[in-house]
Amino acid sequence: MKFPKYIIGLFLAVSCNTPQAVYDYDEKVNFTTLNTYQIYPDLATNLNQLDDQRIISILNEKLAQKGLRTSETPQIYVNFYSSIYETPNRNTLGVGVGGSGRNVGVGVSGGIPLGGADTYLRLTLDFIDVKNDALIWQAEVEGLFNNSSTPQKREESLRVMIEKALKGYPPKK
What we know:
Layout: H1 2-16, E1 20-25, E2 36-39, H2 49-65, E3 69-70, E4 76-87, E5 92-101, E6 104-113, E7 118-129, E8 134-144, H3 151-166
Helix pairs in contact: 2-3
């Protein structure tokens, strides 16, 4: 009976670290007619230039798989931006001291943090209708991100996040 408990525990641990995505879109837009795009010309991503290039490369690959192609006269602009934030590590070691005597209790406890803070990247993808200059689709995805990882690991993390974000495009009405 211990084996299923370990499998469930492993599943929960792995599922908590996968990027989570949220989608929103304009219900009036017919997404099946949109087939050309261009990366938004004035990107302000809050990432370094190398990560910007990685994201653009991954977006070009994944959007081509969805039937979209780049164009000098696009129907949509694809914009992306990010924010990085840290959450305090919730793993602590508890230490307590207590005593009692004659129905009187006294206790002192405290937590010693184990490990450092977790760093998360929140990546937002915007699809903007060029003709109307209006946002028509948006995905926001966030996941663990290590700023000091190798270029291959960074690209792998970004690829997973973008794949998760683009699962919601085109939206199913």
